[in-house]
Design brief:
Two copies of one chain form a homodimer.
Chain A lengths: L7 H11 L2 H5 L9 H19 L3 H7 L2 E3 L2 E3 L4 H10 L18 H14 L1 H20 L2 H13 L2 E6 L15 E5 L2 E12 L8 E8 L12 E6 L1 E3 L5 E4 L2 E6 L10 E6 L5 E5 L6 H37 L18 H33 L3 H36 L11 H8 L9 H14 L4 H18 L4 H30 L2 H36 L4 H18 L2 H9 L2 H5 L8
Parallel strand pairs in A: 3-6
Antiparallel strand pairs in A: 1-2, 4-5, 5-11, 5-12, 6-7, 7-12, 8-9, 10-11
Helix pairs in contact in A: 1-10, 1-16, 3-6, 6-7, 6-9, 6-10, 7-8, 7-9, 9-10, 9-11, 9-12, 10-11, 10-16, 10-17, 11-12, 11-13, 11-16, 13-16, 14-15, 14-16, 15-16, 15-17, 15-18, 16-17, 16-18
């Protein structure tokens, strides 16, 4: 596996030109996010990602996590790496200073998180979950809970987990059966959770489990789920650790990838009941957990991007080094980067990575504005936008991340299939991203039901109007690349608008139709919105080139990459239109026994 | 991993309705291929595939092949399984009776081979290579070589391998450096080959290596390569085994998938030189090896189909069994097959599998006609058609097989990522198919250079005219499904024709352009030609339904599956048009250092 070099320059370009960091740094609370600070944060994070986390990625894959005598052991180097992140206050990067965090905007945190995920996804899941647990307790916990847990989570002293899934309750959380019985000032939790990422380990002295469970008289389904804090060790009034709680890892899964991330089966209450503390009110647990889930979804989308970036770097290094054949027009044998199809694959990887990065960071920036903008209208508007983007970032970036990781294998030819090379691991690791934190279908379901149908397409039309507006602007440009990008973008926006319009009509006819079309629609929207971001990048690059204050090579590449996307990838939106609209009818045409 | 049930009925449908087995059985030499015999062959092969090979697939993956004390050990059960195939004369199914074969057409052999590959791809590579070696020696070997090796290969007494790749010679076979020095009636071979599938094992008493090497005064590049037979044990005049030849497995690769297939590094001549026998004339080795490679390419394309069928069966079984949530319109929790998006995935898998099967079998049928048709014109015409289809079957079916195997994981949700389930193995196994026997880019290169540009698109236009002709017929049908299929097919044919026409022009402008567009073009052609075969299936199904001699459920499903493909998958051809044409310009727009 080749080294990882954090693409700091590309990240800064997106932060500055597309995600509006200047605007965010002007919001109350984010005054510290000066360019100087952000640049040094990115530089230092890049160094740690490249020097500390990345070298452990392949060894972690080989060693995996192991359950021995009831204790989960992580791969070599995990402890040192974890301490590096905790001691540098990286886990608390976006946490509020009140609880010891750095108070930086989400959009900066997301750039740093991309580095962790790209360097070592199996490792980076751990701090990612702690940040999610922090957010959930921060938004929904009591003052006592915040005081007890937030400083420890922000500092990395303790880790957080999310405990949702049970054997019979995966996508259908309403089927959760874990019980919570009131017992004085706390509850006793009993039941079994599966697929718990970093459910147990020795990296920290305590683990803060956020657990969905059901009180005895709770209504059935999702409206009867409550959220509990279940620490691995109870916490005394003075903050010291007390008794071992009745929550234990009983086994680890043997997975296709992310071997070094322990995926645990967790038993609660085998010895009488695990002590749990109710978060907020009973029966509102799913609502609270969505704070953590939305964070996790954005971050899993980010994993799609991150692993794609890593796969791209790996493939690029190989393509530059591997000599094979004479590329057309060359008289000498030379590196395979000269072969047109290798170039097509690398361009596809590069363009998709850049589109994913832009869309993910823009979504994170919307969260910052939704959180801190002084205007309530702006807060509400950017919150709606962030919510609209959330399933698209998760669904589209993870599906695309898989495609890019697979192209990364392909660039290597036979060597890509050999595990020593490292390209295959990226694909194996990436494969989970379209599944956990809600499969692509669950994201698409969220998109059509909670976003498109609920507001009758208002938010989507607004986003697509912006795309169409830029397309129109570009059509008047003198630059051929920009005009071509504009044309492709206009077609993309029209295609997406047709699909959204179809959805609103079809839902009234047969509610199965939007559901059958939902994943193609999500991919269509991702393709178009990703193209929109690259078009914005092209405009910014052109501006710098014209003003003479850019780096001619870097900014010209941005323009050409956007053009490549417009020529080669954006047209795939049109290829999805059938499946995103009337093709839905033939999805449901067969009887069960005709399969 | 769920059981494998050979889809005999679907295979028979394709053989009868689409691949023209009746016509082939009327050709000289294939008189035995009566429906009765073929049906019993398929039934028995299906039984062996399901009962003998399939149960070893997952254990083989876990155990892998091992090199211990210089000997390659295969996974448990491999020996018994191999003997079952050899003793049943399955390896010699398409071999001529003169050498002990069954003399059945390729198209029957391909159906049987699909079963082996679906049941256990890591195992099935072994007989597949023996068949390829048989073909190469049969077409290019001397009478003595045929007498010495063909009966043993056909009977399965010995195995065959293909030794092409070297560390510095992968896609670029011209770079081969293995040496062959004449020494009396034979040559002494020395050098190292890598990625040799079943390069060594204990399944048979002898292994017949077909090896590309270079004689001392050979011209450089591909025109200086000769083909040699290098048996693991020399063969005495009486046919008994003689001395151990100087060819040894020195290591095995650790791969992403097909763990149970030993992928060997083979050392030739470490102890003075391996005895090799020249096939045909010196320096014509690549031409001869292409006999084996074309066989292997068709069969690797078939692997794409086979693993997709297996993944489909696995996903379908899970979707029927797994209870999760209430599907729209259902009042009870029920199996996930009721959820529209799960259905979309299953329909995509089913439609793609059926399209791949039809196209692969049609390609094999063309080989039979090219081999045995009494008319020289017909032989030549079907040979050209088979050669045109070969890279499309290999490239498109393997890329599609990966997509289907990945969907198979997705249908399982979290369980798909757990190795015990078995879905992940199909994806890991499938991933090699777009790489070995020539990557997709190499297939696409073959398609544009040796097929499209060499005859200026004549063969492609002929194939697309047939598609357009059927589309036109369908547009006059009263059946709504057929009319819709016809409309989509017409658009597909037009799109493909535009791409082919672009290619012929662009090649004159800059030879890098067709190369940059070649893989999207191959995928576009595969998508359209696959859709054509499903449209033919729909016509046949409609005919049976109208004549009242069909199975209403089975034939209606064929019609609806073709309709699904036309609505949802065929439009992807339009999405590929940009990349298959002018998008090529932006593929080559960046300088090397701008990546």
């Amino acid at each position: 596996m080749t080294a990882y070099l954090a693409p700091v320059r590309d990240m800064e370009f997106v932060l500055r030109e597309l995600a509006g960091l200047d605007e965010i740094a002007a919001l109350p609370g984010y005054e510290d996010a000066s360019w100087e600070l952000v640049a040094s944060v990115l530089e230092e994070a890049g160094r740690i990602a490249g020097e500390v986390l990345a070298p452990l990625n392949q060894t972690g894959d080989r060693q995996g996590a192991r359950l021995i005598d009831g204790k989960v052991g992580t791969a070599e180097g995990w402890g040192t790496a974890y301490r590096t992140l905790a001691e540098g206050n990286w886990i608390g990067l976006a946490a509020t200073p009140q609880y010891g965090g750095m108070g930086l905007p989400s959009v900066v945190n997301i750039a740093v998180s991309e580095m962790w995920q790209a360097a070592n996804m199996a490792f980076a899941l751990c701090p990612m979950l702690s940040q999610g647990a922090y957010n959930a307790i921060s938004e929904c916990g009591s003052a006592e809970q915040k005081a007890a847990f937030l400083p420890r989570l922000a500092s990395g002293e303790w880790c957080g987990t999310m405990n949702l899934t049970e054997a019979a309750a995966g996508s259908d959380l309403g089927a959760i059966r874990t019980k919570a019985a009131k017992s004085g000032d706390h509850y006793l939790i009993s039941g079994q959770k599966i697929f718990i990422t970093y459910g147990d380990h020795q990296l920290t002295e305590n683990i803060v489990h956020l657990v969905l469970a059901r009180t005895p008289d709770a209504p059935p389904g999702v409206k009867g789920i409550s959220l509990f804090i279940v620490p691995k060790f109870l916490v005394n009034a003075d903050g010291s650790l007390g008794a071992r709680n009745d929550v234990h890892c009983v086994s680890l899964e043997h997975k296709m990838g992310i071997h070094a991330s322990p995926t645990a089966v967790m038993a609660f209450g085998d010895r009488g009941g695990a002590v749990g503390y109710l978060v907020g009110e009973e029966n509102r647990g799913l609502e609270y957990m969505f704070v953590m889930m939305n964070h996790a979804r954005l971050n899993v989308g980010l994993q799609g991007l991150a692993i794609a970036e890593r796969a791209y770097q790996q493939a690029l290094a190989y393509a530059r080094e591997r000599i094979q054949g004479k590329p057309i027009g060359c008289s000498e044998k030379s590196a395979i980067i000269g072969h047109p199809d290798v170039r097509r694959m690398l361009m596809t990887m590069k363009a998709r990575v850049e589109a994913m990065r832009a869309l993910s960071y823009v979504a994170a920036a919307a969260l910052d504005k939704a959180h801190s903008h002084p205007s309530p209208e702006q807060r509400a508007a950017t919150k709606r936008y962030a919510e609209f983007l959330n399933p698209i970032v998760k669904g589209w970036c993870t599906e695309t991340g898989n495609e890019v990781a697979s192209l990364g294998v392909q660039v290597h030819g036979g060597m890509g299939y050999i595990e020593e090379t490292g390209a295959a691991q990226h694909l194996r690791d990436a494969r989970i991203t379209t599944i956990y934190e809600g499969t692509t279908a669950i994201q698409a379901n969220d998109l059509i039901n909670r976003k498109l149908l609920r507001d009758q397409g208002v938010e989507a039309r607004q986003a697509l109007d912006e795309v169409a507006g830029l397309a129109e602007d570009l059509s008047h440009q003198s630059d051929d690349d920009l005009r071509t990008i504009g044309r492709a973008l206009r077609q993309g926006a029209e295609t997406a608008s047709r699909a959204v319009a179809w959805l609103l009509t079809a839902a009234g006819e047969d509610p199965r139709l939007p559901a059958a079309a939902s994943v193609p629609l999500l991919m269509l929207l991702g393709t178009v919105l990703g193209g929109h971001q690259l078009a914005r990048a092209a405009v910014a690059a052109r501006r710098h080139l014209e003003a003479g204050n850019g780096d001619p090579s870097f900014h010209a590449a941005k323009l050409k990459t956007a053009r490549f996307y417009a020529d080669n990838l954006l047209p795939q939106a049109a290829g999805l239109l059938g499946a995103a609209t009337d093709g839905a009818r033939s999805v449901i045409a067969l009887d069960d026994d005709q399969f």
